[in-house]
């Protein structure tokens, strides 16, 4: 079912809301569907995945299974944890706590463990290397703490995985999942460019740039159509914007992309009361939201209820991505 959704997506990030959100199960489903159609997959991760049990909760985890021909970028120290026959294609020179990242080709079907780069630029390098070895699609295993993996500069599409391990309260999990999905679904700002300064206010078709909001107060008072913000937009950024909230009446806030939005949902909602909304310079393609009702901490959800709550929360947030449980399609 997922395969029909990822048509045209060459680089796909699977991002988990938390550990044990079910993204490895999603990853295995995608791998199986793609490889059964003859695709040569490239695989890597921002951290470690594919281990047999969670090192924190000591609960069993699904392993990552690949067929012969798959190309894997992983830490050298994890090669012995898998059981595939392999051909080493290259040593990348990129370090991890588990050893240098090497790129190997599976010469037999079997299980692998992934341990990749945590820096976006290194991930881009690995992605390009994987394609250079003949991969038709690259899959990146990620986490919401590394939302940069959803940047359009790295991935063509994102699947967001949410699960009961996120919070004991199913309502909190559903609402927070919808918030992140909303950020990944923000509309692209038309006719707007990112300039070199931290802030650019656009008023009457004219751009006024500055490295502080204070310098732009006169322009904002006159009624700016848009305020473009370079770099990360954090909780502190939200506080700064709320301090001039009345001046933002109708002004659309524009970030570079969803990966730069690093504030909490409460700050987002407060800003929406004062502004004309949020846009991004580069949009992210949110493919789907997956749900996992099992919790590594014992607070399991009812599967149908969780799925319905997430779907309802997405609808209220204006997000149209499908919601699915890949183990119960």
Q: How many helices does DSSP assign?
A: 7
Q: Secondary-structure element sequence? A: EHEEEEEEEEHEEHEEHEHEHEEHE
Strand order of the largest sheet: 6-7-5-2-10-1-11-17-18
CATH architecture of the largest domain: 3-Layer(aba) Sandwich
CATH class identity of the largest domain: Alpha Beta
Q: Segments where pLDDT lies below 50 for 5+ residues? A: none
Strand content: 15-25%
Can you count the beta strands?
A: 18
Mean pLDDT across all amino acids:
91
Main sheet: strands, sense, barrel: 9 strands, mixed
- From the spread of the alpha carbons, the general shape counts as globular
Termini separation: 8 Å
Taking all Cα atoms into account, the compactness measure Rg is 21 Å
- CATH topology group of the largest domain: Rossmann fold
Main features:
7 helices, alpha/beta, 329 residues, nine-stranded mixed β-sheet, Rossmann fold
Detailed description of the structure:
There is one protein chain. This protein is of the alpha/beta class. It folds into 2 domains: 218 residues, Rossmann fold; 82 residues. The protein has 7 helices and 18 strands. It has a 9-stranded mixed sheet, sandwiched between helices. A 5-stranded mixed sheet has the order 13-12-14-15-16, with no helix packed on it. The protein has a two-stranded antiparallel ribbon with strand order 3-9. Strand 12 and strand 13 form a beta hairpin. Helix 3 crosses helix 7. The termini are close together. The model has no long low-confidence stretch (mean pLDDT 91).
